[in-house]
Amino acid sequence: MPDDDPLQAFATRLRAVRKAKGLTQERLAEEAGLHFSDVSRIERGIRDPGVRTVAKLAKGLGVPAATLFGTDAPTR
Which CATH number characterizes residue 18's domain? Predict the structure, then answer.
């Protein structure tokens, strides 16, 4: 995938944040109310998560959703 692919960038960031929190894909899925296979597909860039799924992932990780996009503050 190209380096500028937003789906792959999201997947990479999600994996990094999850690992930094010390969570497995299974544990994140439990915390987020998702199936572990969904977390796996998102992290591999196979599934494009919708806004509700992003919100669930962020809540499960205990971070703002913006963190999963590589920024904690909106740009102007």
Answer: 1.10.260.40
In a domain, 59, yes or no: yes
CA–CA distance, 5 with 38 (Å, rounded to integer): 19
Domain range for residue 29?
6-65
> 58: which residues sit within 8 A by CB, 6+ positions away?
64, 65, 67, 68
Q: What percent of the chain is helix, strand and coil (3-state, nearest 5)?
A: 60, 0, 40
Distance CA 43, CA 73 (A): 23
Q: Look at residue 41 and tell me if it is in a domain.
A: yes
Q: Which of 18-27, 36-45, 64-73 has the lowest mean pLDDT?
A: 64-73
Q: What's the pTM value of the predicted model, to 2 decimals?
A: 0.88
